């Protein structure tokens, strides 16, 4: 693989993109507050019932469990952020990891940091200050970002499956097909689609009125839960949510299944068992992450639809909002000699630099 893959360059341009979308989001949030005041204004003094803040009930109401929940989530959040940062560090510092697979992995790690950062800090602050309050704007922004990053995560897993498909089924054309331009384009298209979808979902929530019920039986403002709280008609919201879920989750899942069916049929043609194992071992990490992501999301969905008990659905969504982003770095680094080697080297370099700095300071 030629060392021409501009991982760092692409990651920097993605950060620039995020800044740009950040500006768009600020516009969205100014729209939210103006829309909210507009609501107040229209309902008049007699019927002024639009709620301006919600209560996140969290995972448990037991006061003695709060320190335990805080400790657990705080440690999971730290592990998730540092683990994913280490993956990004390893990929950007080792030039032999500047390949499509690791480029997408570093974006996936970045998205995982964002997913947890959208949800967990607010929850920890609420436990610490012993309030359950989240503002209307805070709630819409949580819906926007959680939908955005969960969707992007999903697309990236599909793009990574396509990358493995090309690597195993067309190894001779791999570098030509998966060129830096295509990789940048795939990352960009998946990002734009996720942004448009989360904008649509957030704007759909903005048109709802919330009157009496302000308690969200969850630890963050989740799209589905918020829609259920509304006192206005939610038929259009449910329809849009359903269609976009089928298209934006079903599409990537179909792509992943197709890629792996091709990969398996291609592996069956490899005569030696060692060759089979070697080819499949490059997919094993990705397959583990995909299984974890889809199984936890499916579990959360099935539990929330099977039981009307929203407490159990909140517990189920801990899996895909916190546990999966925390486990991804472990899955990739434990199975992967390249990443372990790159991390060791970057730590050794950091150690050497530290020693040199200390020696220079000591010398008169």
TrEMBL record:
<feature type="transmembrane region" description="Helical">
    <location>
        <begin position="239"/>
        <end position="258"/>
    </location>
</feature>
<keyword id="KW-0716">Sensory transduction</keyword>
<dbReference type="InterPro" id="IPR017452">
    <property type="entry name" value="GPCR_Rhodpsn_7TM"/>
</dbReference>
<feature type="transmembrane region" description="Helical">
    <location>
        <begin position="314"/>
        <end position="334"/>
    </location>
</feature>
<keyword id="KW-1003">Cell membrane</keyword>
<feature type="domain" description="G-protein coupled receptors family 1 profile">
    <location>
        <begin position="83"/>
        <end position="332"/>
    </location>
</feature>
<protein>
    <recommendedName>
        <fullName>Olfactory receptor</fullName>
    </recommendedName>
</protein>
<feature type="transmembrane region" description="Helical">
    <location>
        <begin position="102"/>
        <end position="123"/>
    </location>
</feature>
<dbReference type="Pfam" id="PF13853">
    <property type="entry name" value="7tm_4"/>
</dbReference>
<comment type="function">
    <text>Putative odorant or sperm cell receptor.</text>
</comment>
<keyword id="KW-0675">Receptor</keyword>
<keyword id="KW-0812">Transmembrane</keyword>
<keyword id="KW-1133">Transmembrane helix</keyword>
<keyword id="KW-0472">Membrane</keyword>
<feature type="transmembrane region" description="Helical">
    <location>
        <begin position="12"/>
        <end position="32"/>
    </location>
</feature>
<dbReference type="InterPro" id="IPR000725">
    <property type="entry name" value="Olfact_rcpt"/>
</dbReference>
<keyword id="KW-0297">G-protein coupled receptor</keyword>
<feature type="transmembrane region" description="Helical">
    <location>
        <begin position="182"/>
        <end position="200"/>
    </location>
</feature>
<comment type="similarity">
    <text>Belongs to the G-protein coupled receptor 1 family.</text>
</comment>
<feature type="transmembrane region" description="Helical">
    <location>
        <begin position="143"/>
        <end position="162"/>
    </location>
</feature>
<keyword id="KW-0552">Olfaction</keyword>
<feature type="transmembrane region" description="Helical">
    <location>
        <begin position="68"/>
        <end position="90"/>
    </location>
</feature>
<keyword id="KW-0807">Transducer</keyword>
<feature type="transmembrane region" description="Helical">
    <location>
        <begin position="279"/>
        <end position="302"/>
    </location>
</feature>
<dbReference type="InterPro" id="IPR000276">
    <property type="entry name" value="GPCR_Rhodpsn"/>
</dbReference>
């Amino acid at each position: 693989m030629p060392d021409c893959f501009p991982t760092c360059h692409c990651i920097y341009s993605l950060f620039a993109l995020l800044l740009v979308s950040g500006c768009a989001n600020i516009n969205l949030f100014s729209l939210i507050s103006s829309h909210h005041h507009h609501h107040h204004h229209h309902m008049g003094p007699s019927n002024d019932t639009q709620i301006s803040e919600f209560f996140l009930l969290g995972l448990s109401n037991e006061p003695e469990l709060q320190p335990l929940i805080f400790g657990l989530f705080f440690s999971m959040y730290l592990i998730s952020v540092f683990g994913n940062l280490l993956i990004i560090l390893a990929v950007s510092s080792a030039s032999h990891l500047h390949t499509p697979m690791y480029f997408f992995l570093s974006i996936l790690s970045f998205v995982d940091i964002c997913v947890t950062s959208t949800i967990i800090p607010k929850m920890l602050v609420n436990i610490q200050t012993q309030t359950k309050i989240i503002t209307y704007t805070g709630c819409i922004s949580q819906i926007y970002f959680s939908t955005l990053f969960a969707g992007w995560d999903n697309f990236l897993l599909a793009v990574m499956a396509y990358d493995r498909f090309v690597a195993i089924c067309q190894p001779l054309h791999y570098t030509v097909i998966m060129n830096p331009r295509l990789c940048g384009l795939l990352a960009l298209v998946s990002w734009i689609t996720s942004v448009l979808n989360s904008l649509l979902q957030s704007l759909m929530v903005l048109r709802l009125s919330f009157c009496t019920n302000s308690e969200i039986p969850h630890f963050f403002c989740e799209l589905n839960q918020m829609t259920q709280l509304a006192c206005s008609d939610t038929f259009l919201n449910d329809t849009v949510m359903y269609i976009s879920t089928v298209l934006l989750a079903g599409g990537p899942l179909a792509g992943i299944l197709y890629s792996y069916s091709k990969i398996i049929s291609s592996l069956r043609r490899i005569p030696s068992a060692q060759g089979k194992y070697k080819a499949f071992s490059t997919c094993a990490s990705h397959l583990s992450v995909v299984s974890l992501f889809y199984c936890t999301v499916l579990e959360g969905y099935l539990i929330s639809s099977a039981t009307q008990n929203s407490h159990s659905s909140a517990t189920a969504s801990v899996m895909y909002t916190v546990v999966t982003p925390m486990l991804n770095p472990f899955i990739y680094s434990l199975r992967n000699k390249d990443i372990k080697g790159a991390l060791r080297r970057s730590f050794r370099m950091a150690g050497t630099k530290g020693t040199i700095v200390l020696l220079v300071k000591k010398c008169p």
